[in-house]
Amino acid sequence: MKISLKRFSCLFVFLFFSLSLSSDNKKSMSMIGYWLTSQSIVQVKECDQSLCAIIEVIFVGDGTAQESILDINNKDKSLRKRSLVGINLISDFAYKEGSIKLSGGKIYDPGRGRTFKGNIYLLQNGNLKVEGCLLRMCGHEEWKPVNVMFNDDGTRTATLKEII
């Protein structure tokens, strides 16, 4: 079978771009980044060789300062007067770039004021499934990836990421 140089070049270019697009898509699918939860935006990042998820923004009504939303349900009474902004929601998840499932860590639920054993899954659709378990009962929430842009005036703008 004889392939012309022109066809070979076209095939090579097509395969090269297909592979680079595929690897770019996988690079964009990472647990590290900003995520939209049901009530906040969190930044997932590495903290001392494990993941942490720091609350950056809490959605509040007009005229309410987000820093005034306190951790009032915390089982530890000494922590009930701290703001939810800045707290870490996940701990003890050993992280390696490219991971799509993590287990053996802990997830803090501020609504219940409790910490649960947990799992984290990076789903095919680009969302992060954060699952907390007590005994054999598990509940989860899917976090959506967002792009956060820092504006010149110090404000931030968040938009949902498109995962191809």
Write up what this structure looks like.
By secondary structure, the chain is mainly beta. The protein folds into two domains: 1-30; 31-160, Lipocalin, CATH 2.40.128.520. It has one helix and nine strands, in the order H-E-E-E-E-E-E-E-E-E. Strands 1, 2, 3, 4, 5, 6, 7, 8 and 9 form a nine-stranded antiparallel beta sheet that branches. The longest helix has 24 residues, at 5-28. It is globular, with a radius of gyration of 20 Å. The chain starts with a helix and ends with a strand. The model is unreliable at 1-27 (pLDDT under 50).
How are the secondary structure elements laid out?
Elements: H1 5-28, E1 33-36, E2 40-47, E3 50-58, E4 90-91, E5 101-109, E6 114-122, E7 128-134, E8 137-150, E9 156-160
Antiparallel strand pairs: 1-2, 1-8, 2-3, 4-5, 5-6, 6-7, 7-8, 8-9
Q: How large is the count of helical segments?
A: 1
Biggest sheet record: 9 strands, antiparallel
- Summed up, the domain count is 2
CATH class of the largest domain: Mainly Beta
Query: In sequence order, what are the helices and strands, one letter per element?
Result: HEEEEEEEEE
CATH architectural name of the largest domain:
Beta Barrel
CATH topology of the largest domain: Lipocalin
Number of DSSP E strands? 9
Question: Which spans of ≥5 residues are poorly predicted at pLDDT below 50?
Answer: 1-27
Q: What gross morphology would you assign? A: globular
| Strand content bin | 35-45%
Structural class: mainly beta
What is the rounded distance between the termini?
Answer: 36 Å
What share of residues is helical?
A: 10-25%
Average pLDDT rating: 84
Structural Rg: 20 Å
